[in-house]
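Collaboration report, partner site 2.

Our partner group contributed sequences for two proteins of shared interest, and the home lab folded both. The records are reproduced in the order in which they were received, starting with the first partner submission.
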Amino acid sequence: MPTTLHPDDERLLTDAMALRLWRAGGPAGGGPGPELRFAFRDGLVLLLADPGDGDPWLGWRGSQPPERVELEVSGIHYLGIPDSAGRHDLDLSDVLALFRDKYGMQLVKVWFEGRACLPIVISLVQRLPCA
């Protein structure tokens, strides 16, 4: 599915420090989820999940992810499709490198060192119209 993004989206998605995520069609649990750290590259939103942290939104690997998700970044909403089939050629070291570039080596070390993190990939489909 081709991505339809606004011309300024790549910069916004690259520079934003956090996003909120929920199933498409309405916020999870009646409200937006917590702010999540992420990286962005080539139309893909990249998250790191700790499968032991009990977060149902990020424990998608090994379980059935939602078919579509909505993301909010700096007040702009996007439609995305979680990649549960491993179609993208990104592994943990690739995602950690992008996180280090964005947030700095020290913060990434504090956040993720010694944790069994899994990369979560979401393909952005389109920018959603303003409500």
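Second partner submission, folded after the first:
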Amino acid sequence: MKHSSSAAPAGRGRTWSLLAAVVLCLAGRLPAFEFDYWPKAIVTVPLDPQWQFRVEEWLSFTDNVGRFKDSQTDVWLNYFGLADWLCVGAGYKKVYAQDDDDWTTEDRPMLDAAVKTKVGGFGVTDRSRLEYRLVQDEDEVWRYRNRLTVTSRRLRLFSISSRSFSSLAYMMMSLPALMRNNGGTSNILSFII
């Protein structure tokens, strides 16, 4: 007896069905969704086997993708030569943000250290970042941020970050009741497919 090759494996179909059921159940319990869109472009230039130059550009659209919020440009110089499991870097971010009709700027020098390892066939990266935030017409602030990322061979499974957003394929769903923290930082889970 021959088996049909067009049938999908039962385990994979059950996983997607379970995921869809969980999302639908949770969606009914949340007070409201606000969609933000954050497209990001990255250009990486290897300078030699141990040095890397990177430029990132983020745009942010909020209010259900109906209003431009900000533009962020990052410039990084990373060094991979200290150890196979360690990457260090220095960077600079320039932010132009729009709040109603007012525009503000922010300069943000940054330092990174990322520790990389493998656990049970998955890649694990723990990145620590120190930022010095120079926001126009506000006090200067030092900020520490941490991000733990778990990856498989094919895709990034999840990332736990001190950012106050959750992303799914660059589409942001802000959950106001869960994420409002009066200006502090909160650790949440972000899924990236």
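Feedback sent to the partner group on the second submission included the following. The chain has one domain: 32-190. The radius of gyration is 20 Å.
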